[in-house]
Structure to design on (784 residues):
């Protein structure tokens, strides 16, 4: 089974729901009492695709202006970015364009970009039209999704699933050196034998069977993709 | 009525505490900087204009010192410089144009008409509050108001700015306070900011200045002093709220926290009472895990605004006020609970010029202890994350998490859960004790998490002055009562060593020695000699339990 390790950064203005989105995806819940992120939060999750597994390191960044200068620390070496805006706020959509420019000029390697319009439950206050957002996403070669961290688990799952499949495609096109990919015969070489697995994000509903003999433990050879 | 004496009283206890014996809670080396915050703030209040300007510009950078000591290669040094330069305003201005999400702030202020502003000062949001705090820039732009909407207070801020600058420019003096019949207004000019407290409470001028200084330090902790000064050097008219957005709640919480917790009043830190063995295990788990991580400056474990342990780099200690800011940060940030965070933190007393980088995380889902690993290295997230998991695992195996939870949930079996009952002196209603040499504090009613929560909820609704007959005093009320005694004891001109005051409600004893400060509330009809005996027994109890209620070691990496 092919395993890919990738770093994904979540960017966007303050209050658009970046943390809510990530917490909804990873914790499967929504909290009204999320306080502004300070600096950045770090999550990990695994996504199982049909024939591969993507291990994601998620950096959920703070949207406040004072953390803006720290952003390079988080998007450096990132393989994917979720650009989140609030569909009720035009300025948050404009900010996304700024982020794209910054990523394009500072990240040399190919990146999987996804534009996410959050708070789709507030349809009556919509300020950014779907066509406008889709058009912009297409212009930068990104996916466009609308989500609601409040209600819509599937939409958010889909965002991460799309990103994971795109990362898989990207890794097979052999262009990314920072994207770690290796083959692993038993799925996850980090799970000690005999322990049950606790998968955060298993979409295909596979049961992980740990290998029982020492010979079966794969150590995962790093594929040297690049020069 | 109040009577203060300087000698006769403490003699009995002196006999029982021979001079060579340390006072309860004292040890030879302290993790905390035992500076007397009152002296500091009193000197703040008597400083002249010139001194003030000099002080603000002569800060050395401890962070740079550590970085150079670790002997980072030249290359890395230049890297730090270049990243520093992205912190400055040029980088900021670019980002300002890019993220326009704040533009609505400005729009709002333009919508207001003058009429509304005049009425606004009379609105229920602002009238009849016990204490207001306003922060504005020296150009008179509103930055923060504890109540109401600071946008609508531009007029008021203009008046404050005018008052301050008239005194400064025409009289070459500093405006410190204005006292009216029922109200005190205290002014503090710090760098490019003006901070004002308008209070109807019984707090002294010094205590209010202390609170304003804390509020200022909170802003510095978010931005660093260097950045704060530079912003206003480049644009005197800058609207600081753009950079502080999301941090207002830190100031909100800090102001509530200061009114409630005597730790601020005394400039001391509360420790979570733990069995000696458990604290030792926790400390050594951190030491053994982190000894190899070179850039780590402080490892701090805390829970419920109380310190569990602090391991530090040799030579460096922390000031209690920096720890209070960390308590406040952790307490007011729900977001730390969901994931590991990598957060820039400036500790103003440690080094106001730069950020430390902090790995902040809760130990586990079933234990509300929070671990902060502070480093000077901005790329150290993953080694620290690894270290955290190792520490958490060690603590779980050595049953320390259970000990922490017991202390936090105030398990009935612990002597420190209900100290008054355990001590067995029924006349004592409440006490608080500060060990001066270690800057640590113990009170008979340690705040529990839920209580602070309650207070916050109540406070959100009001902050209004209410004349209510209270049947049973809460610890907040006791602390309120101690304020004036504390002020008398720390009075610069005629400090009292000992105060014994009796009235129909209660009897209060306040006593300061070279080693400790003690405040006790007794039943109203308490005789002096009876009080002395009770205090002696109390001190003996504290001495006996000192290993549990204080941190008696000063571990380093």
């Amino acid at each position: 089974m092919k395993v890919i390790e990738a770093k994904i950064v979540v960017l966007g203005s303050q209050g658009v729901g970046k943390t809510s989105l990530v917490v909804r995806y990873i914790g499967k819940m929504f909290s009204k009492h999320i306080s502004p992120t300070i600096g950045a939060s770090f999550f990990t999750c695994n996504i199982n695709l049909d024939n591969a597994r993507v291990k994601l390191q998620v950096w959920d960044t703070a949207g406040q202006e004072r953390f803006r200068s720290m952003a390079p620390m988080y998007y450096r070496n990132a393989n994917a970015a979720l650009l989140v805006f609030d569909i009720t706020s035009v300025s948050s959509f404009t900010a996304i364009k700024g982020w794209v420019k910054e990523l394009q000029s500072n990240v040399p390697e190919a990146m999987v970009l996804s534009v996410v319009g959050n708070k789709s439950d507030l349809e009556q206050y919509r300020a950014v039209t779907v066509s406008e957002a889709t058009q912009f996403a297409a212009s930068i070669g990104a996916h466009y999704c609308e989500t609601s961290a409040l209600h819509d688990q599937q939409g958010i799952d889909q965002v991460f699933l799309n990103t994971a499949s795109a990362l898989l495609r990207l890794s097979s096109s052999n262009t990314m050196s920072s994207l770690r990919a290796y083959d692993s015969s038993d799925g996850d070489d980090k799970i000690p034998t005999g322990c049950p697995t606790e998968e955060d994000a298993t979409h295909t509903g596979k049961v992980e069977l740990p290998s029982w003999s020492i010979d079966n433990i794969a150590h995962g050879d790093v594929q040297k993709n690049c020069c | 009525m109040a009577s203060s004496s300087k000698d006769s009283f403490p003699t009995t206890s002196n006999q029982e505490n021979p001079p060579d014996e340390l006072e309860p809670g004292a040890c030879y080396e302290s993790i905390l900087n035992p500076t007397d915050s009152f002296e500091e703030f009193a000197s703040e209040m008597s400083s002249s204009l010139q001194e003030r300007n000099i002080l603000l510009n002569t800060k050395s950078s401890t962070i740079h010192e550590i970085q150079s000591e670790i002997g980072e290669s030249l290359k890395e040094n230049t890297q730090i410089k270049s990243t520093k330069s992205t912190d400055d305003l040029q980088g900021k201005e670019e980002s300002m144009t890019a993220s326009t999400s704040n533009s609505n702030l400005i729009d709002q202020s333009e919508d207001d008409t003058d009429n509304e502003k005049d009425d606004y000062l009379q609105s229920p949001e602002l009238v009849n509050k016990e204490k207001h705090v306003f922060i504005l820039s020296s150009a008179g732009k509103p930055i923060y108001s504890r109540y109401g909407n600071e946008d609508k207070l531009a007029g008021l801020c203009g008046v404050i700015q005018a008052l301050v600058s008239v005194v400064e420019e025409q009289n070459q003096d500093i405006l410190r306070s204005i006292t009216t019949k029922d109200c005190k207004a205290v002014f503090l000019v710090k760098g490019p900011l003006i901070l004002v407290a308008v209070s109807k409470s019984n707090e002294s001028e010094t205590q209010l200045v202390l609170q304003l200084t804390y509020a200022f330090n909170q802003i510095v902790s978010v931005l660093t002093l260097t950045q704060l000064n530079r912003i206003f050097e480049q644009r005197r008219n800058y609207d600081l709220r753009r950079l502080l957005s999301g941090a207002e709640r830190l100031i909100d919480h800090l102001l509530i926290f200061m009114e409630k917790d005597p730790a601020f009043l005394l400039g001391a830190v509360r420790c979570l009472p733990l069995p000696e063995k458990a604290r030792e295990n926790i400390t050594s788990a951190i030491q053994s895990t982190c000894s190899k991580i070179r850039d780590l400056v402080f490892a701090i474990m805390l829970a419920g605004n109380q310190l569990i342990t602090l391991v530090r780099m040799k030579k460096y200690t922390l000031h209690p006020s920096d720890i209070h800011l960390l308590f406040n940060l952790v307490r007011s940030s729900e977001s730390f609970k969901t994931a590991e965070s990598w957060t820039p933190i400036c500790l103003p007393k440690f080094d106001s010029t730069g950020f430390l980088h902090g790995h902040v995380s809760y130990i586990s889902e079933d234990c509300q202890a929070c671990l902060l690993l502070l480093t000077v290295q901005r790329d150290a997230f993953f080694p620290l994350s690894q270290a955290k998991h190792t520490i958490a695992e060690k603590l779980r195996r050595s049953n320390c998490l259970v000990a922490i939870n017991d202390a936090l949930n105030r398990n009935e079996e612990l002597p420190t859960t209900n100290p008054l009952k355990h001590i067995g002196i029924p006349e004592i209603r409440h006490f608080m004790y500060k060990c001066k040499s270690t800057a640590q504090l113990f009170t008979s009613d340690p705040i529990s998490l839920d209580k602070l929560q309650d207070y916050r909820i109540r406070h959100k609704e009001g902050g209004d002055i209410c004349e209510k007959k209270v049947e049973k005093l809460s610890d907040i009320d006791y602390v309120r009562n101690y304020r004036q005694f504390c002020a008398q004891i720390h009075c610069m001109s005629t400090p009292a060593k000992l105060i014994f005051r009796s009235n129909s409600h209660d009897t209060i004893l306040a006593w300061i020695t070279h080693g400790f400060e003690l405040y006790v509330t007794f039943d109203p009809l308490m005789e002096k000699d009876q009080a002395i005996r009770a205090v002696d027994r109390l001190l003996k109890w504290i001495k006996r339990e000192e290993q549990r209620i204080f941190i008696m070691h000063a571990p380093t990496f």
Confidence is low (pLDDT under 50) at residues 187-218 of chain A.
